[in-house]
Each structure stands twice: as structure tokens, then as C-alpha cells.
Recover the amino acids of this structure.
């Protein structure tokens, strides 16, 4: 069976992992990578010599043999690249967060609907066997009524300069909790603090209230560089 021919845009922090996973996944065929850095493209070429590399992502959009693209670029570029890809008739995978604001996120969704193509966001944890197992137990009633969810995320990984900690780390726990509870929150309250950059929250606490649970779900997070809390 012919595999889905996929191109990856962005070979920085996470793009190479996408190429590796596509290379190992049945039914997928990574065929090209675009990035502005010659050094990054050379690294890709050494690891995956069969994968074509280019500094112009538009070459990939114009290639009729490419079925889908994965976007692993800075958040501020997601909307433009996704809209271009959909206009070119490609299916699109976008790394989380899908965008840096609601307006851009909704624009990406509308672009996928106009093109009648699949839009997928990199909420990888909803495919984690442990997370899936908890969801199955909730559906069966093994855990009874869910009153409270608490999560903490502390990570000293890549420091993000273009998005705050809620947009950077939050999508993982948001996607997990929404997947578990199968419900959208009635209200959300978030408080953040800046430490290294003005107007860039490096710690954040959130509370999310659901009809399913009589008290707010709480999630506590650690940012890449400072402690952070999220309560749902």
C-alpha cells in the first residue's frame, strides 16, 4: 500500500523528531524537509539521506506528490504556513500550540474546512497508552465520579521566547483533561507572573470548572525556567 507522503517544515528543536517518527511509522513516508538553516538541513540529510531538503517551503506546497505537511516552526508562523498549505491542497499537522491567539487558531480551522483537508494538532499525550487507559477506566466507571484532577508539569527544557508558559506547556494538560472528561469547561481563571521578560509569563496558575465535577479541577505546572501552577 502506498504510504502518505509527508513533508516537514522546521528542523529545529522538534522537527527532527517528526521526521524520525514518520520514518518509523507504518503508512507514512517522509519525503522532504524545509528549514532556513543550512546547518539544520545538513543534519537532516546525514540522518535521513533519502529525504529531500530545501530552504524554500513553497517548493513543498507546489509539489503535487506531497500529501501532507507537518509544521514545526515558531508559533507566530503557524497560521500563515497552515493557510498556505491548505490552499495548496495539503493535509496539515501543526505542532502545539496550534497558534498564539484564538483568532489565528480559528483561522487555521476555517482554512482546513474550506480546503476539506485534515487538520491535526500535536496533542501527543492523548495517544499515550497510560492516558488512554485512564480514559477507558473513566468511561467504564471504574473510578466513580470524578471530583478533582490535579496535574503538575515542571520542565527545564527549551526556553520559549515567543509564547508564555500557559500557551507552551498548557496544551498537553488541557488536551489530556478534555480527553478524559469529554467536556468543555464552564469557566477558566488564570494568573501568571513575569521573571525574565516583560509581559512574558514564566509561571502560571489556572483553575478550570466543569459541570462534571462539583469543584474546580486543579492543575499545577512548572515552566521551563520557573515554577508554575495550573488549576482546572
Amino acid at each position: 500500500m502506498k504510504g502518505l507522503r509527508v513533508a516537514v517544515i522546521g528542523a529545529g528543536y522538534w522537527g527532527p523528531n517528526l521526521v524520525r517518527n514518520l520514518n518509523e511509522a507504518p503508512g507514512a513516508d517522509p519525503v522532504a524537509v524545509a528549514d532556513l538553516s543550512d546547518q539544520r538541513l545538513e543534519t537532516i540529510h546525514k540522518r535521513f539521506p533519502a529525504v529531500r531538503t530545501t530552504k524554500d517551503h513553497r517548493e513543498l506546497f507546489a509539489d503535487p506528490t506531497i500529501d501532507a505537511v507537518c509544521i514545526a516552526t515558531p508559533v507566530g508562523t503557524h497560521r500563515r504556513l497552515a493557510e498556505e498549505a491548505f490552499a495548496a491542497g495539503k493535509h496539515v499537522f501543526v505542532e502545539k500550540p496550534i497558534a498564539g491567539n484564538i483568532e489565528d487558531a480559528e483561522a487555521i480551522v476555517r482554512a482546513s474546512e474550506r480546503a476539506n483537508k485534515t487538520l491535526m494538532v500535536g496533542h501527543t499525550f492523548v495517544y499515550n497508552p497510560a492516558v488512554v487507559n485512564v480514559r477507558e477506566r473513566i468511561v467504564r466507571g471504574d473510578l466513580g465520579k470524578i471530583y478533582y484532577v490535579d496535574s503538575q508539569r515542571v520542565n527545564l527544557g527549551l526556553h520559549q521566547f515567543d509564547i508564555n508558559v500557559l500557551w507552551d506547556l498548557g496544551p498537553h494538560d488541557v488536551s489530556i483533561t478534555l480527553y478524559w472528561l469529554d467536556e468543555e469547561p464552564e469557566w477558566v481563571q488564570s494568573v501568571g507572573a513575569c521573571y525574565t521578560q516583560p509581559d512574558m509569563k514564566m509561571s502560571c496558575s489556572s483553575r478550570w470548572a466543569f459541570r462534571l465535577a462539583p469543584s474546580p479541577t486543579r492543575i499545577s505546572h512548572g515552566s521551563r525556567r520557573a515554577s508554575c501552577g495550573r488549576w482546572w
User: Anything to note?
Assistant: The chain is about 35% helix and 20% strand.
